[in-house]
Amino acid sequence: MIVDLSRLSGGRLKTGFTIAPDDPMLDGYGSQITEPIQLDVEVTNATGGMYVVTVNVLGSSVGSCRRCLEPVKVTIDDRFWVVYQQSKSADDEIGDADVIPIDPKATEIEIDEPVREWLFLERNRFPLCDKRCAGMCPQCGQNLNQKECDCERDETDERWGALSALRFDD
Ligand SMILES: [Zn+2]
Ligand SMILES: [Zn+2]
């Protein structure tokens, strides 16, 4: 995904990209991407040598509910921005880790890496199918949203149960 800086007019440029679900940059994403991810990109060059790239991300993925493990659709609808600053060499200290140095003669900016990084960092690892999801029975695996099972359920917290079991063992 390349932003062509020569297309800036009045210090602004709007462009867009689509990431296909099978794009190699999504390898290892961890949730299944089922539709293309849309990126609306706006570049502003307010002050000399500095480009602010704002990326609006729209898409969705399918993960597993953290309680009942059923598939759940997760919407991605967010925005982030990346700042690029022209510098004479890549070693130039810009003093801000969030600013990416680019060559002063650069006519384009490649945004694959920051986009990939953002997508992976912001991935919802623990989605919920519903705020009231009843989860699944730890004994028989029954999805308790669908029906109750016949397992005896201890009302005490599982973790304390494990502790007291230890205590009575010796
Ligand atoms: Zn659930
Ligand atoms: Zn059960």
Molecular structure report:
The chain is mainly β. The protein has 2 domains: 2-131, no CATH class; 134-170, no CATH class. Helix content is 13%, strand content 35%. Strands 2, 3, 4, 5, 6 and 7 form a 6-stranded mixed sheet that branches. Strands 1-8 form a two-stranded antiparallel sheet. A hairpin with a 6-residue loop joins strand 5 (50-64) and strand 6 (71-86). The longest helix is centred in the C-terminal third of the chain and has 12 residues, at 158-169. The radius of gyration is 24 Å and the shape is elongated. It starts with a strand and ends with a helix. The model has no long low-confidence stretch (mean pLDDT 88). The structure holds zinc ion (2 copies). Residues 137, 139-140, 142, 149, 151 line the site of one zinc ion.
